[in-house]
């Protein structure tokens, strides 16, 4: 994609050990993320920190689906655009965002998605939306379930700035999931969410 900055990711990957130390991130199961080939990273979502944390621990760039409103925020909008984020209109079923995600997955990229659609309350989960199920059925790529704990303590919903050193962040990455083509979107999404919860 035109806005994706590989040079920016190379720079970020050099300095991310600093962020990992600063945020006190503990990660398990990193080997479960394929080194190459299209795959979906599906994680629970409780904080704006989540995409940043996942890219800090991932061995490869994760291109996240992000709500369109974030692209209008000065500096942040520029950063997520250069990070290859895919803008999503949450007020309707965004066909363009799904098409772009499918295109990226089929070209071998790693796409990140939060099945819940938006941030959940602290220590809780929301019901998954069917978008991730649609992506799986259209691309036949593995889904890597991920559970994050602690980001909602550091940067909870409603906070303007993160509260560093308040908590550790734990990231647990599960084994790749594969699904039959005949399964419906909702069923796939629910199974993925249950896998995330069980980690």
From TrEMBL:
Record keywords, A-Z: Acyltransferase, Lipid biosynthesis, Lipid metabolism, Phospholipid biosynthesis, Phospholipid metabolism, Transferase
GO biological process, one term: phosphatidic acid biosynthetic process
Occurrences of domain Phospholipid/glycerol acyltransferase (ranges): 39-151
Domain of life: Bacteria
Record's keyword annotation contains Transferase: yes
Pathway given in the UniProt record: Phospholipid metabolism; CDP-diacylglycerol biosynthesis; CDP-diacylglycerol from sn-glycerol 3-phosphate: step 2/3; Lipid metabolism
SMART domains xrefs: PlsC
Family named by the database record: Belongs to the 1-acyl-sn-glycerol-3-phosphate acyltransferase family.
Name of this chain's protein: 1-acyl-sn-glycerol-3-phosphate acyltransferase
Lineage, highest ranks first: Bacteria, Pseudomonadati, Aquificota, Aquificia, Aquificales
